[in-house]
Amino acid sequence: MYFKIGLENGVEGRSLAWVLDHPGCFAYGQDGHDALHHLPAAIQNYIDWIALHDHQPWLRRPEAELEADEIWEVYTIDEDYELAEEGYQVDAWFRHDWRPLTELDIERGLKLLAWSRADLLKSVRGLSQETLDAGQPGERWSIANILKHVGGAEWWYLDRLALAFPREEVPSDPFERLEKVRTHLLKTLPGLAGSRQVVGIDGEFWSSRKLLRRAIWHERDHTFHIRKLI
User: Fold this and answer.
1) Which CATH architecture has domain 93-230?
2) Residue 224, SS3?
């Protein structure tokens, strides 16, 4: 089975390999070669994850060595959109992100979002408020703030395409935020089938496909993160 791979270098000092046709399937590495080296195991874990929920997984393990089809070097810009050492980080825009989402993409995406959210909530089930709010050694955020970040980022992805509800309506409580933003995304996503809309905002491009790619990746990434903390 052939996999389209996007390689994003410079993600917080690491490289991130994306399996572009399968949102939520990714691997990190110290550099691009290392990320690609870790990708087969990530693909197998992704296949196993789907198989837990669906009797007919829609992908198979790769039979050949994986190579990057696209490579993006992360860079930073200032308020004048000039390259800068500090400022706004411009993350990957792959040629693949231009492709409109199909109805099948959305059908699968809705399943992946449901499974990913269930995993996230399961990872924090039973934790006391004290544990949720406690600082973590060497970490920027508490678990509660990681949850708020997941919901806030998902709202922000929607906002890039002018699809979000007003910012002042974003709940402060992490669980209420997760629920409200996700409900809005699930209502919005089916209407994006076939959309060719691409928006340039704050120095980077966004599309429906990029929105789905990043939303599923981001939640799964932080679910793995939380599991390591507890």
Assistant:
1) Up-down Bundle (1.20)
2) helix
